Amino acid sequence: MRTRRIVIAAASAAAAVLLLAGCVDNSTPTGGSSSSGSSSQVSKDAAAAKLLPAAVAKSGSLVIGMDNTYPPNEYKDDNGNPVGWDVDLAKAIAAKLGLKPQFAIAKFDNILPSITGGKDDIGVSSFTDTTEREQQVDFVNYYTAGILWASAKGKTVDPDNACGLKVAVQSTTFEDTDEVPAKSKACTDAGKPAIQVFRFDKQDDATNAVILGQVDAMSADSPVTAYAIKQTGGKLQAAGKTFDVAPYGFPVAKNTGMDKAVQAAVQSLIDDGTYGKILDKWGVSDGAVKTAEINAASKG
């Protein structure tokens, strides 16, 4: 997820009552199971494992902080188990390091404190690498994502000319706290109607609001929007192109050596083709990278 903040979403409850169930199918991709890229299919990389902090290597587990409410990146299957392409990558990283993945499900805002406090070894929750966050943790970069809007099929929406429109977002995402409010302010500064923001606790509900015609469009991270378009069977279409592209990163504690171990594991997955297969399975290969970097935001 892009930068999140605590927001009082007064509009979300009112908007949520407009929704009907069953509009979005968030089952795992056809032709693949949620375990693709898991430890049963990935070989240990001894060189990467050797870089692990001694305490993590001795524990035998990789403790993974995750907020599982953001399909297709990370979410829950019908049995409550973590699934998504970030989940598949996390399992594959653990396998490369010779560790057993252990998911610690938490609210997004609690993950970085759990890493800096030593409770979690790594965060896997669509974190956008920012220079502000790099003051707390180090990031191993593994993907590039931007913002992509979607509208109902056949409805033309221009994200750069959305004054007066109703736009759905997931609460506390960057789209909610920064992107759409900035667009709305530009509207009012120009004497035009503000954008009406409809906030939802879950991305599925924001997507359903577009399908049901309760809003004009939705704004989300590019892989999330692309997946929603695919999963809704042609009921949605991209509104404009991806913009505001930034790197995703796996946050780890500073000055522990964990960054080098995870970087080596991710690079090994890229080099042996596992990384590409996972992204292809989930239909999110557009943001693939060839090199796992560390703290790309401060370099860019």
Please specify the SSE layout and strand pairing.
Blueprint (H helix, E strand, L loop, with lengths): L9 H7 L29 H4 L4 H6 L1 E6 L8 E2 L5 E2 L1 H12 L3 E6 L2 H9 L5 E2 L14 E15 L13 E5 L3 H16 L6 E5 L2 H9 L5 E5 H10 L4 E17 L5 H15 L1 H9 L10 E2 L1 H4 L1
Parallel strand pairs: 1-4, 1-5, 7-8, 7-9
Antiparallel strand pairs: 2-3, 6-9, 6-10, 6-11
Helix pairs in contact: 4-9, 4-10
Note down, in words, how this protein is organized:
Residues 1-21 form the signal peptide. InterPro entries: Solute-binding_3/MltF_N. This protein is of the alpha/beta class. It contains 11 helices and 11 strands. Helix 4 (85-96) packs across helix 9 and helix 4 (85-96) packs antiparallel against helix 10. It starts with 9 loop residues before the first helix and ends with a helix. The model is unreliable at 3-22 and 30-38 (pLDDT under 50).
- Arithmetic mean of pLDDT: 88
Count of helical regions: 11
Termini Cα gap:
19 Å
Helix/strand class: alpha/beta
Keywords: Signal
Organism: Microbacterium rhizosphaerae
InterPro entries: Solute-binding_3/MltF_N
Protein name: ABC transporter substrate-binding protein
